[in-house]
UniProtKB/TrEMBL annotation:
Keywords: Cell membrane, Ion transport, Magnesium, Membrane, Transmembrane, Transmembrane helix, Transport. This is Magnesium transport protein CorA. It is a multi-pass membrane protein. Pfam families: CorA (PF01544). PANTHER family: CORA FAMILY METAL ION TRANSPORTER (EUROFUNG) (PTHR46494). It comes from the Bacteria. GO terms for cellular component: plasma membrane. The chain crosses the membrane at residues 163-183. It catalyses: Mg(2+)(in) = Mg(2+)(out).
């Protein structure tokens, strides 16, 4: 940024800058480069705020879907959102640091003694602070959804394991008894006992009941 020029660098199409110049192009170019720079930052931050607020609705719908019928597909989607939010939070943290420096120190082309410039700097700082807060909040919500889904899955797994444990406790003794008396030994004295059949059922029923 110089006295009469402002250079911006972006890897692709900048929607916020295009929207700004389409709406206020001529009036904007009549101002100083620092005013244009602050306005570009302000509009860019607003563009991201709008996108994040739209994401809040999608996140709320995703939360309802997860509670009604959670599955691995929804979990992958939440984890993807969480990864993107981490990157956005890091970027907005950098921007927040820049705007904090602008509000704390004097720069040659940003005269803070002018009330208009100072208000513009504060507005930009507030927007990036809000962006950082929103990304942190949505990141925490995604983390809570992941933890909640894992807790529900663990609870369901515990119920399943409990049922399997009961079934195992019932059938293991029965299988053992059946295996013993299913062996083809010629000499098994209890088989010739008059009440041997009924005595065999006693431990079977005890294993089922207890």
């Amino acid at each position: 940024m110089g006295e009469r020029l402002l250079v911006t660098l972006h890897p692709g199409q900048a929607l916020s800058i295009e929207r700004l110049f389409n709406e206020h192009g001529k009036a904007l170019l009549a101002h100083s480069p620092e005013h244009v720079a602050l306005r570009v930052m302000y509009i860019s931050a607003g563009f991201y705020i709008d996108s994040l607020l739209e994401f809040e609705t999608a996140l709320s719908d995703l939360e309802d879907e997860l509670l009604e019928a959670g599955n691995d597909v929804l979990m992958r989607k939440i984890i993807t959102y969480r990864s993107r939010l981490v990157k956005m939070r890091r970027i907005f943290s950098y921007h927040q640091g820049i705007t904090q420096e602008l509000t704390a120190y004097d720069y040659e082309h940003l005269p803070r003694e002018q009330s208009e410039t100072l208000h513009a700097i504060n507005d930009v700082a507030e927007r990036f602070e809000r962006l950082y807060t929103l990304t942190q909040m949505y990141y925490d919500i995604c983390g809570d959804l992941v933890d909640g889904y894992i807790s529900i899955s663990s609870h369901q797994l515990n119920i399943t394991m409990r049922v399997l444990t009961v079934i195992t406790a019932i059938f293991v003794p029965l299988t053992f008894i059946a295996g013993v008396y299913g062996m083809n030994f010629e000499n098994m004295p209890e088989l010739r006992y008059e009440y041997g059949y009924f005595l065999c059922w006693v431990p079977c029923w005890e294993s089922v009941v207890y």
